[in-house]
Amino acid sequence: MAQQERVDWWAGAAAPQPRVVAPRRSVEAEPEPLEDRVGGAVYRSVQDSEAFQEIRRGYRAFVFPACAGFLAWYLLFVSAEAFMPDLLGRRIAGPLNVAWTLGLGQFASTFLLTWLYARNARTKRDRAALELRWDTQDQLR
Fold first, then answer.
1. What is d(CA 85, CA 33) in angstroms, rounded to the nearest whole number?
2. pTM surpassing 0.85?
């Protein structure tokens, strides 16, 4: 019965038999170095260039302090909530207390930090990165 042809109910035709595919052989070859690939030497030279390093320095000069500051601000808020609930429960105006003020400040600081990052990127790095990209594309032609 295994040798009989199956008939599909919707087509009334014999079902196609599965193809037998030979398994792929595992080749343990080392990948070629980046410089041997097409354009690899160009990208390596761009990465080593002073213009690229300046773009990276500008990125790090903004991102690392901003992340550290925001993380400290967040941990201060969470720590205050855990260890000083009486302080955070103090009312400021009506139902608004210190905890609500700090919590909403987290949202405000997130949007402020996003705006500062976009402005920093636009004014200090985007133009240099675009010029470097065009130079790279010219070298690859």
1. 58
2. no
